[in-house]
Each structure stands twice: as C-alpha cells, then as structure tokens.
Amino acid sequence: MGEALHKHDVFQAIADPTRRKLLHLLGDGELPVTALSDQFPMSRTAVSKHLRILAEAGLVKDRKVGRETRYRLDAEPLRELKRWLAYFEQYWDNKLAALKLYVESDD
C-alpha cells in the first residue's frame, strides 16, 4: 500500500465519518493499525479497509516496522480541498454579513 494509487479522490475519502476520525487520530502522529482499531467499534479488518481508501487518496502513508504496519497522515492532498472550499467562503462571508446587519437592525 506504501505508494498511493489514487483510486479515490480526497472528497470521497473524507466523506465517511470513520475516515475523518482516522485522519484526526493520525494528526497527532504515526500509529499502528492496532492502536487505531482500538478507537472504533469495528474489526481491525474494517479499519484497515478505511485506511486503504485513505491511502488510495494519498491522505495516509504506511510503513512496515517489523510485523507491524504504521500509518501517518499526509495532509498535502487536503490542500486541494482547502482551495476548493476557499472559493465558497465569499458566499458564507456575504451571508454572515447580511445576517449581522439584520440582527443589529432596529426593524
């Protein structure tokens, strides 16, 4: 799994709440699959499948340490998501400004 195959894009990968939690856990540093699977009410095999999707999207990297596979976050692909969302900030900012004006008005 070492090198990402990019079968899934970042948007597909983060669509699942389990995968988002995995990314959050890996944000604190490299972890073995056993430590990750302890955080979920599912089998290690199910967690491994989620990790494979994240790896295929380039969001996690893995490496073998003895018999153990350890995973780490690779946040670089999230920059694509950040750029995409940045475009829509103008709409959020406009709506928030309009809401502020409405709430602060005397009408």
TrEMBL record:
The keyword Transcription applies. Transmembrane segments: none annotated. Keywords: DNA-binding, Transcription, Transcription regulation. PROSITE patterns: HTH_ARSR_2 (PS50987). InterPro entries: ArsR-like_HTH (IPR011991), HTH_ArsR_DNA-bd_dom (IPR001845), HTH_MetalResp_TranReg (IPR051081), WH-like_DNA-bd_sf (IPR036388), WH_DNA-bd_sf (IPR036390). CDD domains: HTH_ARSR. Residues 1-93 form the HTH arsR-type domain. Pfam families: HTH_20. The keyword Cell inner membrane does not apply. GO terms for molecular function: DNA binding; DNA-binding transcription factor activity. NCBIfam families: HTH_metalloreg. This is ArsR family transcriptional regulator. It comes from Paenibacillus nanensis.
